[in-house]
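Support reply, case 0932

Customer input (verbatim):
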Amino acid sequence: MLIEGLHKIRNKIRLQTVWGALLFLFLLPTVGFSQTGPKVDAEVDTLAIKIGEQIQYKITVEADSTDVVFFPEGQTFSPLETVEAIMADTLKNNDKVILQKIYSLTQFDSGAYTIPPQRIAINEQPFFTDSFQVKVADVVVDTTKQKMYDIKPLIEVERSTADMWLTVLWILLGLIVIGGLVYWFFLRKKPLTEEEKVALLPPYDRALMELKKLENSKYLIQDEYKQYYSELTSIVRSYLEEDVHVSAMESTTSELITKLEMLRDAGELNLDDDTLQQFQKILQTADLVKFAKSKPATSIAEHDRMVVEQIVTKTHEALPEPTEEDLLLDEEYLEELAKKKQRKRIYLAAAIFAGIIVLSSVFSVAYFGFKQVRDTVFGYPTKELLEGEWVASSYGFPPIILETPDVLVRQNVELPKETKELIKELQAFSYGSYVGIFSVSTSSITFKEQKEEPQFDAIVGSTLSNFEQLGLKNIITKQEEFVTQSSVKGMKTFGTGTLERPNGDSKKAKYNILTFGGKGFIQQVVITWEENDEYAEQIVERILTSLDVKTQA
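Our regenerated output:
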């Protein structure tokens, strides 16, 4: 067995050498012979540290100022952990730019570790750094002088609300600014313009004012008789339409005179024949000026204006006095008119505000995607878990070390009598439930009999049977080897299934079962989540990256 193991190790080393050579040959044309292309270099400040100390890993990229450079992000230095990443410096050299980024790395277990080559993308073209061998030494502790203490219990840590309050403040500030703009431009009462002030006057007063303006105009001096008579007839026709309530603007001269005569005969308008004849003569003169290019004397034009002013005055005096009911109706009409204007402004402001919201939504959806925007605005459980404050902790004995979105809670498991006879101790921790949207649980079991190797297939089969009892159907199972950060090998069982709910609905679910163990103990991590949940996929990936187990205390 030993010889066979050595052969396997030797073959593995040979395979790694071959792959390394092929990788070097593949990258050689890109890195070795590109004199004018980008250059990538990496260095570390030390190759030997103690547990918990940090290594400064610096990547230097020399590229054109127009190149787009992407540095490694996240835990890409595994088995070492990334503590911090800082963009250190940017230097310009003619048309070249030198970018430097420093990563602080650490490891909390002793041993020899290899920092893998890091991928730097320049204009979507990959470049790889060299790998580094790092030794992590134990911290020597003199137990004769240093007292030993029990492990402190877990304490609750309140989630930080600083980011949340900052987001809320920015949203409130944006709403205040938008509300202020809407009020200033649409809701506030603006000072009336001269035209608006004139429009609010009673028809009689407005007609006299406009006739006075016409008297002071320069139309007659500039021989603009057509414009003069057009405004003159428009003033008197508008007055008759508003005050006498006769359709004067659309009527011909003969039609208008006929309507006035009918009102007179009905007793609704007390005008004499002479006034009507004068008015008819003025309208006919205006028609000749506008359509036949007639040009009366200036004195006649001025006299016509004065006659129209007299006609307006006589018409106003001939109208019956408005009753209280008429006055009330007029007041209600004005109030309703004011309300309509106010509603119009409100509707316009609401439309603009809605337009801003729609445009912002469209831009956000186009840039971030519909699902991202929807889940950000309305919230999504797994997204909140992913973006929250994670907890790194150790669970059970032998310990299982992993990082989770929330603290796993200890579970009290009642074992059957026949099982209690075999198990020395069972420690279980979990978050969520198998039938929920996301769950993660750990269990560490130590047996009374320390000689036999644990049966992984039997343990996994028991977990799958538990899934079936909870309603998971059509289970598809795959298996592969899983290796932790500290090179502990285990078995990964993964697959999908259909979860049947009590209400008749069903959903697709995925699961991961990671099993480790040795003589006298077994460790297991179980993760379940909904299929097609991209946030849950990221959570699972982060948990698996952080997962580690210890086979000893």
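We compared this against your earlier run and they match. Two observations from our side: Confidence is low (pLDDT under 50) at residues 1-35. DSSP finds 14 helices and 20 strands in the chain. Please reopen the case if you see a mismatch on your end.
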